[in-house]
């Protein structure tokens, strides 16, 4: 009789121990999640960044051949009012010869307006070529002096270490001479 009572006590002790392990594990998991959640939540964009999620740009004062730079989401965005020669140069390229093959028509909505994020896709530098006095590289577009990436008049990588073309942000024409970026 004593042996069965001890056996029952051992089974009860084992089930209590299992319950305590499970309860402690559950409390630990909830505690870890509660401690980690604020860090994960801090990765969300702040209110001031969300407020700049889209911007409107008036293109009326930009003359043919002129380029402007605006800031969107903390990044420079290059907008160039391309000349007919720049458009022709961009469209006459054999896309099969490009590192990141993309036709000019896929990079623009209106051929005379080129809109791109002005950050080199190699290491995040800002390429030169927006000002008339800047070097524009071998292909008349933009040149990143940090590592020698050359972009053409469509913002496509033509020479250098950059792995892909300059990024084109989401944008739409909101009028005849205005765009909304974002």
Give an account of the 3D structure:
There is one protein chain. The protein has two domains: 44 residues; 133 residues, Rieske Iron-sulfur Protein, CATH 2.102.10. The chain has a three-stranded antiparallel sheet with strand order 1-9-8, with no helix packed on it. Strands 2-3-4 form a three-stranded antiparallel sheet, with no helix packed on it. A hairpin with a 2-residue loop joins strand 2 and strand 3. The model has no long low-confidence stretch (mean pLDDT 87). It has three helices and nine strands.
CATH T-level fold name of the largest domain: Rieske Iron-sulfur Protein
Poorly predicted spans: none
> Rough shape?
elongated
Per CATH, the class of the largest domain reads: Mainly Beta
Rg, please? 29 Å
Q: Order of helices and strands, N to C?
A: HHEEEHEEEEEE
Report how far apart the termini are: 80 Å
Instruction: Quote the average pLDDT.
Output: 87
Q: How large is the count of helical segments?
A: 3
Report the CATH architecture of the largest domain.
Answer: 3-layer Sandwich
Helix share bin: 25-40%
- Biggest sheet architecture: 3 strands, antiparallel
Strand order of the largest sheet: 1-9-8
User: How many independent structural domains?
Assistant: 2
Defining traits:
182 residues, alpha+beta, 2 domains, 3-stranded antiparallel sheet, Rieske Iron-sulfur Protein, 24% strand, elongated, 3 helices
In short:
With 182 residues, this protein is an alpha+beta fold. It contains 3 helices and 9 strands. The chain has a 3-stranded antiparallel sheet, with no helix packed on it. A 3-stranded antiparallel sheet has the order 2-3-4, with no helix packed on it.
